[in-house]
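Case study.
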Amino acid sequence: MVTARPLRRDAQRNRELLVAAARALFAERGIDVPLEEIARRAGVSIGTLYNRFPHRAALIDAVFADRVTATAALAEHALAMDDPWEGFVFFLERVCELQATDRGYNDLAARRIPEATATEEARRHGERLMRRIVARAQEAGALRADLTLEDLAFVFWGQARTVEATREIAPDAWRRHLALMLDGLRASAAHPLPEPPLRPEEAMQAMGGCRD
Amino acid sequence: MVTARPLRRDAQRNRELLVAAARALFAERGIDVPLEEIARRAGVSIGTLYNRFPHRAALIDAVFADRVTATAALAEHALAMDDPWEGFVFFLERVCELQATDRGYNDLAARRIPEATATEEARRHGERLMRRIVARAQEAGALRADLTLEDLAFVFWGQARTVEATREIAPDAWRRHLALMLDGLRASAAHPLPEPPLRPEEAMQAMGGCRD
DNA sequence: CTAGAACTTGAGGGCACCCTCAGGTTAGCG
DNA sequence: CGCTAACCTGAGGGTGCCCTCAAGTTCTAG
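After joint prediction, the assembly is written out as follows.
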């Protein structure tokens, strides 16, 4: 897989130009930016883009796989922190920061792209770590005991919209939203919840089936 | 304005068919449903649709103005409730219920359509009432004192996404999300917030500038 | 019943994006 | 240097939605 028959040098170069262009445009305008624009920004024809990346998901994979990996690193760091609650908060804040900085990342935080296999694989790894962050904060009695990993999807969905809406007007407004949400996640704030949590597969489907 | 030169009878009938079709389709598929489809469902040509409603916003106005008014009625009811906190919760729950039921309403909860003047006017009225709901719950010491009306936009934005994502998989999941959020809004849960609230105009702009 | 204003119709031009493929270009091996 | 496979190109066909307008139809006042 690492050595998948080397590209000719010009092709390799074009590939890199495309990934760079995509990275920039995804960050600026989100994951749905027209492919033609990516090609133009890379200084390459649309045909070449399709030669290198048969579909948008392949391009997303090339751009984001590492970033989702970086998120996993954040999770590791959170787990290494002394205070479990602070680790939990640290992680959420950092992820939301990425959501606020990079429009493409924000899109990916709220919806899955099943065809982007590398990205999805990295996401799964991140999820395993997050599960541990949650469990650890709960064992310490800081995070409410009835919270599941799937509930965090609510946090990211909410942040996704808030970040999008306020990006231009008040780029840090999301911190306030997150803080309000966090106050609801503390064990000390917990009141009984009216609905059972999403099952993991349900949460998966929910992220996949999100249009717009 | 009430008597704006009566339409010919057939035109009036077509208008009603169009509004009914739009109401149904907005509810099913959201506010961005193709106009051609609305015309088809109404059994009328696309040209007729444009005769009656020069732009989508006019149609939105015709469909939603009353529903936003109904939301104001919810607010009045909330204000009439004995317990201010319960009034607050009642209001949020009902609005979120509407968001969950009607995809078009959900869209409107998260973004303004400045050209839809009647709808916007009704929204402003609802806002005045909501401000009172918030103030009353704060005075009773139940709602955190640092919360502003604009902060509720975060709630609605978040719910908008959650409702959209979970509608098919778990239609009541939003209740859990809302409950978590509510636990963060209680006075007893309050920790200092890291950011100042949005100013009212900022919140307005934020809802207007939301693409997707 | 008739005239003419009001209304309806749907084909069609515009636009933005998708993706393909025939024909021209280039890298790099021998 | 020459040859071939790999690569690039961009015009163009497909789709879906927007909105307009010239030509026909229908209502209604007189």
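Observations recorded in class. Chain A has a mean pLDDT of 95. Residues 8-11, 34-36, 46-47, 50 of chain A lie near DNA strand C (CB under 10 Å from a C1'). We will return to this complex in the next lecture.
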